[in-house]
C-alpha cells in the first residue's frame, strides 16, 4: 500500500467516529423537554381581529383602555434530538427538564393537552367570577355547564342565572339543591332564568334519572357566582394551563371601570386566580419574566409564593410587584400610578 492510500485510509478511519457522532446528534432523541420564554399577549389588545377580552352587550359599559396588561407563557419543545438539546441548553435561554415531569408516563400527550385546555377554560371562568365579584355584581345560582345530551340541553345555557323553581325563588345553591332533592325522575320542573344579552325566560324540563342519585336529574352543573347581564369572552386559542387568570381578571376590571389601571404603562404578569380573587403560584416564573422583559414590560406582577424564585433571576430593570389577591393587584397598580411604593418581592 502506497503512502497516498494509507493517508486516505487513515482519514476515513478518523472520520468514522465524527460521522457517527453527527448521526447521534441529528437522529437520537433524548428524554428531555425544553422550557423557555414563550409569547406574551396584551389582554387589553386584539388578536386575529378580536379583542383578547371581549365584553359585549347592551348593558355593558366598556371604557377605553391604553398601555399593556400582558399575560405571559412558557414555550415547550418536545421530541428533541441530542443536537437540538445541546444547542438549546448552550443558549442559556432554555431549561431542559426530564420529559416525565412534563408528560407523566401514565398519561398520553393527548390526555395531558386536554387537561391543560380544561385548566385554561376553568381559569377563564374563575377570572370572570373574580372580576365581577371585585366589581360588586350580585351573586346568583349560575349554570356553569349543560350536559348534552341531557334533560336541559337546548333549554338552559352556560351562564344562565336560575331565579326560581316551580314558582319558588332560589337565592343560592343550597336552596336550589334542596328543591331539586324533593323531585323524582320524570317530574317536570319550571325554571325561571335570566340569560345574558336576552330577556328573562322560563324553561319546562322533564327530569331524567341518574344512578348516582335517587332524585331527578337536571343535567346541569351550577354554582353560586357573581352574575352580570352581558357576555365576557376570552379569545385566546392554543394556550393551556391556568396561569393567565390574574391578567384576564385585571383586563375585565380595567375595561369595566373608568381610568387606566396601568396608567398607560407596560405591565406584565402571571398567576392563577380563584373565583374569590386569590392569586396562586405558577410554574416557569423565570421564563415568563424574561419574555416580559424582552417584550418591553416595566412592571411584572408576581404571585407571592413565586417571589423567592423570581428574585433569583436576572431582572434587567423589571420591577417585581408581589400580589396575593385581585384586590391587592388593583391596589398595587393604583399605587404605582400615583408614584407610591407597591408591595415588592
TrEMBL record:
Residues 238-336 form the Lon proteolytic domain. GO terms for molecular function: ATP binding; ATP-dependent peptidase activity; serine-type endopeptidase activity. It is an enzyme of class 3 (hydrolase). Signal peptide: none annotated. It catalyses: Hydrolysis of proteins in presence of ATP. Its EC number is 3.4.21.53. GO terms for biological process: protein catabolic process; proteolysis. Gene3D superfamilies: 2.30.42.10, 3.30.230.10. Belongs to the peptidase S16 family. This is endopeptidase La. The active site is at 243, 288. The lineage of its organism: Bacteria, Bacillati, Actinomycetota, Actinomycetes, Mycobacteriales. Keywords: Hydrolase, Protease, Serine protease. The keyword Magnesium does not apply. Residues 141-195 form the PDZ domain. The keyword Hydrolase applies.
Amino acid at each position: 500500500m502506497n503512502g497516498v492510500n494509507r493517508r486516505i485510509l487513515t482519514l476515513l478511519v478518523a472520520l468514522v467516529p465524527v460521522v457517527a457522532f453527527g448521526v447521534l446528534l441529528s437522529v437520537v432523541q433524548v428524554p428531555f423537554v425544553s422550557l423557555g420564554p414563550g409569547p406574551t399577549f396584551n389582554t387589553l389588545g386584539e388578536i386575529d381581529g378580536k379583542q383578547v377580552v371581549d365584553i359585549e352587550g347592551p348593558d355593558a359599559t366598556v371604557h377605553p383602555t391604553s398601555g399593556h396588561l400582558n399575560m405571559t407563557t412558557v414555550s415547550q419543545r418536545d421530541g428533541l434530538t441530542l443536537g437540538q438539546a445541546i444547542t438549546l441548553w448552550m443558549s442559556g435561554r432554555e431549561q431542559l427538564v426530564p420529559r416525565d415531569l412534563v408528560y407523566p408516563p401514565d398519561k398520553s400527550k393527548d390526555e395531558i393537552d386536554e387537561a391543560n385546555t380544561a385548566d385554561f377554560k376553568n381559569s377563564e371562568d374563575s377570572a370572570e367570577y373574580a372580576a365581577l365579584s371585585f366589581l360588586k355584581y350580585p351573586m346568583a345560582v349560575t349554570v356553569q355547564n349543560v350536559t348534552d345530551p341531557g334533560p336541559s340541553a337546548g333549554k338552559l345555557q352556560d351562564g344562565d342565572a336560575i331565579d326560581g323553581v316551580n314558582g319558588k325563588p332560589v337565592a343560592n345553591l343550597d336552596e336550589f339543591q334542596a328543591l331539586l332533592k324533593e323531585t323524582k325522575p320524570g317530574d317536570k320542573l319550571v325554571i325561571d332564568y335570566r340569560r345574558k344579552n336576552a330577556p328573562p325566560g322560563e324553561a319546562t324540563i322533564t327530569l331524567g334519572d341518574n344512578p348516582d342519585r335517587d332524585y331527578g336529574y337536571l343535567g346541569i352543573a351550577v354554582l353560586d357566582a357573581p352574575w352580570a347581564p352581558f357576555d365576557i369572552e376570552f379569545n385566546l386559542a392554543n394556550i393551556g394551563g391556568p396561569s393567565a387568570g390574574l391578567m384576564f381578571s385585571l383586563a375585565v376590571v380595567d375595561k369595566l371601570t373608568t381610568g387606566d389601571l396601568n396608567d398607560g404603562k407596560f405591565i406584565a404578569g402571571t398567576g392563577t386566580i380563584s373565583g374569590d380573587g386569590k392569586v396562586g403560584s405558577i410554574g416557569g416564573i423565570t421564563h415568563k419574566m424574561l419574555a416580559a422583559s424582552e417584550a418591553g414590560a416595566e412592571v411584572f406582577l408576581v404571585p407571592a409564593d413565586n417571589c423567592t424564585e423570581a428574585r433569583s433571576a436576572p431582572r434587567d430593570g423589571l420591577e417585581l410587584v408581589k400580589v396575593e389577591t385581585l384586590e391587592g393587584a388593583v391596589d398595587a397598580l393604583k399605587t404605582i400610578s400615583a408614584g407610591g411604593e407597591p408591595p415588592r418581592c
